[in-house]
Structures are given as C-alpha cells and as structure tokens.
Amino acid sequence: MKFKDFILDTNLSNNLYIKGPDGYFTNKEVKGVETKDKIFLTSFYDKKKLGQTSVTDYAIANGAFPSKNGNIDYILRSQYNSNCVYCVKRDGKREEADNCTPTVGLRPEINLSLDVIYKLHKDIDENKNGNRVLKFGLFPNSRAYDSEALEEIFKTNSGLFKETGKSYTGYYDKNKDTFTKNKEYVYEGKTYVRVKIKRNKKPCFNDNTPVAESGNYVWMNVKPIIWKVTNWDDIVNGKAQLINVISEQIIMCGIPFNKTEQNFSSFPNNNKYNTSLWQNSTARGYLNGINVENIKENGYLEFAQSGCGDFSNNGFLDEAFDLEINKNLYLDDEYEMI
Fold it and tell me: For 62-110, what is each residue's pLDDT tens digit?
C-alpha cells in the first residue's frame, strides 16, 4: 500500500452567490454543489480556530514574503466575490484576497483513516505548542545548510547527483503559463530538491540566510510533513471515525487559487458572482492531481470553467504521498519515513 491509500475522500460543502426574490445575490453554502476530494483547503464557514502559523523555506523560495513574525496570508476554499476568496491574514483574521494572487500560501487539510494509528502504529505526539501532531508524507521543507556548496558542485559536475525521477511543483510563471518543476536528487546518500527561486521583495529563509535573486537555485531538504490533529479529543474518547489534520506549517506558495481570471458569460443568468469556486480552482487541481478544466463530474456542472489547469496525476497528492509504505527511501533521521 501507499501513503495516499490512507487518505479518505471528503465531501466538501461549497458556497454560491444565489439570487433571491428581492433581486440581490447572497453568498452562502448550498446543498447540491459538493465536491469529493482527498486534499482540500479549509472553508471560511468551518468552526476550527485556524489562526496563523509559520511558513516553510520551500514556500519562501516560491514567493512567500513572511512578516517579522514569520507569517503570510493563506487561502481558504470559500469564494468572497467574483474576484476574491477568503483567506487567513497575517494577524489571524479571515478576510478576502485576490483569487489570482500568487503570494498567498497553501495550508492543506486531509482526513486520514484510523488505520494510520492501528495498522501503521503511528504515534500522535504533542509538540512544544501543546498541539497533537503526526508525520505523514514527504515534501521539500527546509534549506540545506550547505546549499551554496551543493549548487557549485552541481554546476561543475552534475553527474555526481543522481536523479530519482521525481519532481515537485513550484511557482506559477504567468508569462509562460507554466509551473516550475523542481527535480529531486540523491547526493552522497542524502536526498535534496533543487528549487528555482521566485523572490518577492527581499526575504530571508528561516535560518536568516537571504534569498537569492529570482531565477537562481537553492537546495532543499525533503522532510516528513507535520500535520496538526484537530479531533484529538474524539480520537482519545473513541468517538472519531477518522483523523482530521491540517498542515502545521504553510507548506507552499506561488500557486494562486485561480491562475487565470474566470469568464462568467457562460454562467446561468450571466451570474458574474461565481467565478471563484473551489470546484474550478487551480488550488484544487494542484492539491488533488486532477483536471479542473470544464469539469464533467464532481461539482456543480452549470458553473464549470476553463483556464485553471490540468494536473492529472501531477500534483501534491502524488508528490507527497505516492510512496510505498514498505519502501524506506530515507534512512537518515532527517528524512525519515513513518
């Protein structure tokens, strides 16, 4: 079995702008427009207290510009209006963000089978903040301490680095209408990802190393993703039917909610208010590795759109979780598999 086999499908309620008898449109969650996804962003209407959190070096390399407290805005899946979605701001409040901006972060949420505990015998530990967390999946995280040296060696003798055949999606290049791809390598027994930088202003990585100019490269460590468990009490009391988790850090940036403006002229009643739907979003396509171009199922088909991308088998789901459980690729503690 693979890690992704333990990720459950989740039925997600979504919100629409609906025209009322008074002629005004109201933004609310509506039955019948659910999607079923394995990986998702939290809804504005979810009662969880999300608050702010830290951001990974990989997100910084892809355009994140943290505040002095290390925070950035991160998006939710609920539309705010025709041009915006809700997000969690740097101060922890939930407000709006342009649905095409690439500088907001992604903080995914998933539901895991309880077999993660009972069959994988994975512990749910308590971290220094008092949160219950578990490690699940692998993704680029922190800058390698010898990144500059690795880049110099790579430029002079790239044959010393063995490609694993795997790559990770990076930031969206609007001018080329493509997403960068960052290859994974093994060098002297350790696994790294060579990441093309998109610098926003003049940030530093979490070790206070300045980020180089856009177009340069930085080497990243691949580490287990740490997830915050939100239903720990129900698990302890035997009431839980699954493990609900959200990434403890903002793990990615540079991927907008929608990579292109949506065209509302084909919508019922020329409804311009529903151009920021989760079902059509670039974020949904990337996280789940699916095609969100003119969806034919799994959503409200009257509001299907084009222009947000085809990520079929080429997104976060496969990048982070398409790993055989009995295949220990990372023997060092720094790259441990659960």
Answer: 999 998 888 899 999 988 877 788 999 988 888 888 888 888 999 999 9
Distance between CA 237 and CA 229 in Å, rounded?
Answer: 14
Sequence-distant (≥ 6) Cβ neighbours of residue 248 within 8 angstroms? 53, 127, 131, 133, 226, 227, 228
Using one digit for the tens of pLDDT, what is the confidence trace for 119-173? 776 778 888 888 899 999 999 999 999 999 999 999 999 999 999 999 999 999 9
Q: What is the pTM of this model?
A: 0.91
Contact present, 276 and 262 (Cβ < 8 Å): yes
Distance, C-alpha 20 to centroid of its chain? 35
CA max distance for the chain: 70
- With residue 320 as reference, give the H or E element that holds it: helix 316-321
| 3-class state of residue 124 by DSSP | coil
Q: Which residues, 6 or more positions from 292, have their beta carbon under 8 angstroms from its beta carbon? A: 279, 280, 281, 282, 284, 285, 308, 309, 310, 311
**All residues at 6 or more sequence positions from 307 whose CB lies less than 8 Å from its CB, including other chains:** 258, 259, 260, 261, 262, 263, 293
**Radius of gyration (Cα) for the chain, nearest Å?**
20
CB 35, CB 49: distance < 8 Å:
no
Q: Give the number of other CB atoms < 10 A from CB of residue 292.
A: 28
Distance CA 178, CA 173 (A): 5
How much of the chain is in helix, strand and coil states, percent to nearest 5?
Answer: 15, 35, 50
